[in-house]
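Extended Data, panel c. Modelled sequence:
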Amino acid sequence: MKKLFIIGTVISAFLLVGLIPLNMFVVDFPEWVIWIPAVILAAVNVLRIVKSDEKRAVKIIAPIVSAILIAAAWGGAYCNPYWGSTLTRRENITKDYDTVLTYSQAQEDMEEMLHWVNKDHPAFYNGRPDYFEKAYGEALARLSKDDEITVNDLYREMQTVLSTLSDGHTTAYVLYNEEHYLKTIAERRAQGYTLESINAKTVAELFEENRGLFSFDAESWGIENLSGKLTSKEGLAFLGIDADGASYTWVNESGERLTETYTSADFVTYAEYVKYNEAYMTNESETESFASYKIDKELDLAVLTLTECIYNDEYIASLRDMFTEVKAQGINNVAVDLRGNGGEDSRVANEFIRYLDIDSYKVDTTEQRLGVFMVSQDDAVMENEKYADLTFFGDVYLLTDATSFSSAMLFAQYIKDNDLGTIIGEPPGNDPNGYGDIATFRLDNSGIYISVSTKKFLRASGDATDKLVMPDIECDGEAAMDMLMETIG
């Protein structure tokens, strides 16, 4: 009998603890599964107390240890924002946009989306917001009336719900097996054209008609997201635009317009798109690092181009190499180009600031949603562990645009709120008093992905009243480099 209690305890405890990494790294399953080994372990301990002839100490200690394991497993399932997420698992594709779903399948995916937002988003800590509840009910009602529901229809309806949060990080997105891109885009851009309108509606007008389909803090970020949809057949379908007969009007700097009408055949796979545009595309994106720099001795300027906020050995080495050359050549101006940077890891900003002559600086504070708990981080000042051998005493500049997002915005916020440099360009695309630090989930029936914010961020400077991180020198994002040259010249 004693051996049976030991074996039962070991197996159920192993299963209980093992389910957490199994869910995180291997396969998704609902939180309630954790209760199966938990109940078994509890039952074993009750029987041990009632029927076992073990020593009293064992009868006391074993249940206490088991209770601790059960509590830890409960926390790992119900208070872990990444339970069920794709964080550590290989991503799978979304079903094709025109794949037909039953209403039951669509409803299940909507309910799954609601579950993850309820569990992880800080705005839901005190209950589901009324405006979200209303939008959710309306979306389900529309789906129930559809004669046919496609993945695209479900994607649209999910966005009508998630967009009510005004949170650019909490959004649905798709990873189709093959998207079909308008083959002439690279050619027209190389000729100096930009897209002005589709079917006689400007990009701004299209955004006003479809703003409820996009998640954004800043309207500029919503427009950028819509603009991205205009380049593919699947993106047009999301906007309710038929690729067959779509009329695109392009305009160049001279005001000359070119109108072309396309068919579905003009939208090709990415491989075909690259082949078609060989003459207009370069291989720079394939060979150039996400963190690269150039130094112009004549202009007394070093420019770090950061296309992603990735904190790794490559980034750390690039910064050290740049500031080593800056010191050796006596450069007095350093700029960081964050245009088009969608963010990722906020530590890139902290690492850069280590080269500046400052002992400490204000940082943002957060409120982390952990299931039934909300954990606040109140320390708003960070000690700066300076690189004394390479401290830079010159002027710092940041170039930003509407697509500088998340950690790129935070980079600009630290520079702005601590008076560490000058920001040139457009405001970054999200609110410094907004949400972020996402968990990502793939919905079972459609394969649609949703990203859900798990933190509420509070700006480093509590005195700032601007909704966005406003540049010191405002200009069009594309003109930011020219404005930098003019400023330091």
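The first helix runs from residue 2 to 25. This feature is highlighted in the accompanying rendering.
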